[in-house]
Amino acid sequence: MEGPMTHAIAAELTAGGLWAAGFGTGAAPLWQAHGADLNDLPALIDAQGASAAPVLVAGAGGARVTVPCAPLAAPAPWEAPTLPGTTSDIRLVAQPMLSQSSPPALSGGLEFRVAGFLDLNPKFDGVLCLPGAEATLWALISADEVVSLSGFRSGALARAAGGAGLSIDNAPRFAEAAADTLDRPERLAARLAEAGAARALGQLDDAAMQDRIAGALVGAEMAASRAYWLGQNVAVVGDAGPARAYALVLEAQGLPVLRADLDTCRVRGARCAVSQGL
Q: 225 to each of 84, 241, 263, how far by Cα in Å?
């Protein structure tokens, strides 16, 4: 006996990879799947027997709307690239990214996460911190709209400096490094060089070096984004390791931080998006 039919599919493409979910008539997804990039989407869909369902893709397609605005704009037509490995045509439409011209910023495929968080927390006014594998997005929220954006490439810089992203091995060690550059962000480049040199000299092991690098980068980012989070309600929605890193530094500044589950927010936002737009 066949299971429930997939009526619509939501997909999210970020630097961390591809996520897709199929929805029927209920609120919960019928299935979820992960891949490396958009080229994996046809195989994920075919494996679920859902090739006839339209696909709403966040993080691709080029459509944009300017903040301030709601996190979910109407889906946009998309002349999508030909995707390999599919047994039938897949109809793709784009979930517009949120954009800002000054300073330049893009939401980068995180629209479902923002929308889901706001649907779960409808009276939230404050700042969302959305850390990912390569980049972190800060979004100022007021009256259910995204008012402004600020983006940082701290995850990518951590990897480039020899670390393993923004995950933490030892919280006190990470916090010490973060406090240093939060207080004196001009030390960042020196601290990254020192962490690498200390590892080469045998003064630090890999885990300690990675904590120093991650802490230095998050601390400097927090200094640069101080106007966003100072005195605000703050919620963190992101991958477990980076989300913990940001929450620790924010809490050390005396801020109450709401830690929201990434999967819960993403699924809720995707459900809202396909309900409104497909």
A: 41, 20, 25
Q: Which of left, alpha, beta for 233 (phi over 0: left; psi -120 to 50: alpha)? A: beta
**Model confidence over 4-36: pLDDT tens digits?**
788 999 999 999 999 999 999 888 999 999 999
Q: What average pLDDT does the structure give for the chain?
A: 93
Amino acid sitting at position 216: A
Task: Report the 10 Å Cβ neighbour count for 3.
Answer: 10
Identity of the residue numbered 143: A
Amino acid at 19: W
* Torsional sign, CA 266, 59, 259, 229: negative
Strands 104-106 and 97-101, by their bridges, are antiparallel
Q: Which CATH architecture has domain 151-260?
A: 2-Layer Sandwich (3.30)
pLDDT value of position 161: 95
Of 128, 142, 90, 155, the residue nearest 229 (C-alpha): 128
Backbone Cα Rg of the chain: 20
Q: Would you state the structure tokens that stand for residue 160, as one six-digit string?
A: 């480039």
State the pLDDT at residue 1. Answer: 38
CA-CA distance, 130 to 203, in Å (whole number)? 33
Convert the pLDDT of each residue in 88-116 to its tens digit.
568 899 999 999 999 999 999 999 999 99
- Domains of the chain, by residue range, sit at 8-120+267-276, 151-260
Collapsing DSSP to helix, strand or coil, 106 comes out as strand
